[in-house]
Structures are given as structure tokens and as C-alpha cells.
Design goal:
By secondary structure, the protein is of the alpha+beta class. Helix content is 21%, strand content 27%. It contains two helices and seven strands. Strand 1 (47-53) and strand 2 form a beta hairpin. It is globular and about 75 Å long. The protein starts with a helix and ends in a 10-residue tail after the last strand.
Length: 163
């Protein structure tokens, strides 16, 4: 094979590889946004409504639907499109961050956060009242048609009534 043919083939192979890398990077970045169907409370027993109160961080209170019958409170959070980070010591058995909050600068999530700054976990019937969870999110099985609530701070309920 002449040297010029080998150079042309090498350039084509490099261009193909570069195009595949750009395509792969684009697909990786595109997925994290929740689907539009999840951006509201569930209707009836079509799923579990998840409320996350981000007001401690200057954000809003988000209400989304985890469709179907999630097996755990953790599965409901994830199915509703919230990014969940556990602690280094306990993994996802202790939820330390939701959608990146608090930041790693504020809370390293190595062990359990202090009692004055953690994600408290709540349950409610649709349109009912919040009840503080006595189980962790990996142990509780929410029923379709119910509401799960999360609020950051020292254990206060989410800032809205269960939808």
C-alpha cells in the first residue's frame, strides 16, 4: 500500500472517530431533563405525586408525577426526574442531595448531614396532611394516588399542602 493511501485512510478513520465522539457527547448531555408528562401532580392513581421544596436554597417548590407504582420512595423520586445523591457512608439509603442541592461545598455528603440541615421525608394522601416519615426512602412503599414530600432544613414539612 502506498504511503499516501495509508495517510488518507488514517485521516478518514480519525474523522469518523471524532464524529462518533461528538455524537456520543451530545446524547449524554441531552437526557437529564425530566419529561414534560412528569412536571405536574399525578391524576387519580396514575402514579405517586412527588413534592420537593427547594425554597431553602432560594428555589421553588416542584411538583412532579412518578408514573405507575414505584416500589420505594427513592424510586418515586428518581422516576419523577429528580437527581438523587446519597452519602459516601450510606449510599442512597440516606439522601443527601436532590438536584445537586445542597452543593458539595456546603455539604460533602460523606456521612449523615447535621439535624439542622437535611432532606426530611414526608407522606400524605392526595389533598390530605403531611406526616413525617418514620422509614427511609428505600424502605417505604408509596401507594399510587398518594403524595411524597421532601423539604430541606431542620425537619419542617414542604411549604405547600399535598396536592
Amino acid at each position: 500500500m502506498p504511503v499516501s493511501t495509508a495517510i488518507v485512510r488514517t485521516r478518514r478513520w480519525a474523522a469518523t472517530l471524532a464524529a462518533l465522539l461528538v455524537l456520543t457527547a451530545g446524547l449524554t448531555v441531552a437526557e437529564p431533563a425530566p419529561r414534560a408528562a412528569h412536571a405536574a401532580a399525578c391524576t387519580g392513581t396514575t402514579g405517586v405525586t412527588v413534592v420537593v421544596d427547594f425554597t431553602a436554597f432560594g428555589g421553588s417548590i416542584e411538583v412532579r408525577c412518578a408514573p405507575g407504582d414505584p416500589a420505594t420512595g427513592l424510586a418515586a423520586l428518581q422516576s419523577a426526574g429528580f437527581a438523587v445523591t446519597g452519602t459516601a457512608r450510606w449510599g442512597l439509603a440516606f439522601i443527601c442531595r436532590l438536584d445537586g442541592l445542597p452543593t458539595a461545598t456546603t455539604e460533602p455528603c460523606v456521612n449523615t448531614p447535621p439535624a439542622s440541615a437535611y432532606w426530611s421525608y414526608w407522606h400524605a394522601p392526595a389533598g390530605g396532611s403531611w406526616s413525617y416519615s418514620t422509614l427511609g426512602a428505600t424502605s417505604y412503599n408509596p401507594a399510587p394516588g398518594t403524595v411524597e414530600g421532601w423539604s430541606f432544613g431542620s425537619g419542617a414539612a414542604p411549604g405547600i399542602s399535598p396536592p
